[in-house]
Design goal:
- This protein is mainly beta.
- The chain has two domains: about 280 residues, Thrombin, subunit H (Beta Barrel), CATH 2.40.10; about 45 residues, no CATH class.
- Helices cover about 5% and strands about 35% of the residues.
- The protein is built from two helices and 26 strands.
- It has a six-stranded antiparallel barrel. The chain has a six-stranded antiparallel barrel with strand order 6-7-8-11-10-9. The protein has a two-stranded antiparallel ribbon with strand order 1-4.
- β16 and β17 form a beta hairpin.
- The longest helix is centred in the middle third of the chain and has 8 residues.
- The radius of gyration is 19 Å and the shape is globular.
């Protein structure tokens, strides 16, 4: 997945219930580029990152928002691991909890992936350390203009159908925000709702992928990292002109607070500077932006073609009771069974051991 920064010395400071990093620059702090197109994340750099696991196997990600609650995409989970650096080998800073309550958004639409958000309550609180810390959440009114730098982390595949190699280190990648107008032109007008936010390169090459679903998309403002999105779906992984699509965090403060009676998470307004270039994007069927711009600034994108999106998680079909419509961007291992998804239809092929869904 992802990309990251290095600093020779740093300290951790609390602001409200979320995490801020104060970096004392002793020498240059370069950004490293790498989930698809990413690289290994240094230990402790993303201390809110969680691994959701079933029978000891990772299937998607999540973000810690207080000592006993996790945010992820709409799905079920059995065990949550925090403070992990890798999926195999020693993890001296890791802790695990079972999930005692799953709160899915009541308006989640499995066909469109709208409201793809879920709260998981842990069996007991976790103790905050340098490796386990909740993340700030984007508040209503936050603005993420096109080009805003963001980071995605996770243990998902490093390309469609290509597993993360052992020992399964946490990966990170730096991707720019793509405005909703452009993203709608990419996926088909109406596919991207106001509850979604997109990020990726027009040329492709960097993205979240299968197994990253539910994980964090964060941007830095001052000394705070703010959760702007939750990994949701995409057309393949890292394809040109198909950025990853994420649940827009700033749409859900009221819903989250209504579920939590104490230890409210920290909400912070993220503010972009300058002018949003997305307002100049135009394509067939796309309504005019709220602000009238000079004709010379308008960028017209070519007509879109029908696309098949895939959800970025592993398929969860206990006892082979397949659920319809099939969750997108999934894969799982079943003995002698292959599950494939095409436009949310399912076929089962026998005498195969493993198949990645695309």
């Amino acid at each position: 997945m992802v990309s990251q920064f290095y600093a020779h010395f740093f300290t951790f400071t609390w602001l409200s219930t979320c995490w801020t990093l104060v970096v004392l620059f002793i020498s240059s702090c370069p950004l490293n580029t790498r989930i698809v197109g990413g690289q290994n994340a240094p230990p402790g750099n993303w201390p809110w990152q969680a691994s959701l696991q079933s029978s000891g196997s990772h299937f998607c990600g999540g973000s810690l928002i207080n000592s006993q609650l996790l945010l992820t995409a709409s799905q079920a989970s059995l065990t949550v691991s925090l403070g992990l650096q890798s999926l195999q080998g020693s993890n001296p800073n890791g802790v695990s909890r079972t999930v005692t309550n799953v709160i899915k958004h009541p308006n989640y639409n499995s066909r469109t992936n709208d409201n793809d958000i879920c709260l998981l309550q842990l069996s007991s609180p976790v103790t905050f350390t340098d490796f386990i810390v909740p993340v700030c959440l984007a508040a209503p009114g936050s603005t993420f203009f096109s080009g805003v730098s963001s980071w995605v982390t996770g243990w998902g595949t490093i390309a469609s159908g290509v597993s993360l190699p052992p020992p399964g280190n946490l990966m990170e990648v730096n991707v720019p925000i793509v405005g909703n107008r452009e993203c709608n032109c990419n996926y088909g007008v109406g596919s991207i709702t106001n509850n979604m936010i997109c990020a990726g390169l027009r040329a492709g090459g960097k993205d979240s992928c299968q197994g990253d679903s539910g994980g964090p998309l964060v941007s830095k403002q001052g000394n705070r990292w703010i959760l702007g999105g939750i990994v949701s779906f995409g057309n393949g992984c890292a394809q040109p002109n198909f950025p990853g699509v994420y649940t827009r965090m700033s749409q859900y403060q009221s819903w989250i607070n209504n579920q939590i009676t104490s230890s409210q998470p920290g909400f912070v307004t993220f503010t972009s500077t300058g002018t949003d270039s997305d307002l100049s994007i135009s394509c067939a069927g796309l309504p005019l932006p709220p602000t009238t711009l000079p004709p010379t600034t308008t960028t017209t994108l070519p007509p879109t073609t029908t696309t098949t999106t895939a959800k970025r998680e592993f398929l969860s079909c206990p006892d082979f009771n397949l659920k319809f419509p099939l969750k997108m961007r999934c894969f799982h291992i079943y003995s002698n069974v292959v599950v494939k998804s095409y436009l949310r239809y399912v076929s089962i092929t026998s005498k195969m051991n493993l198949k990645y869904l695309k």
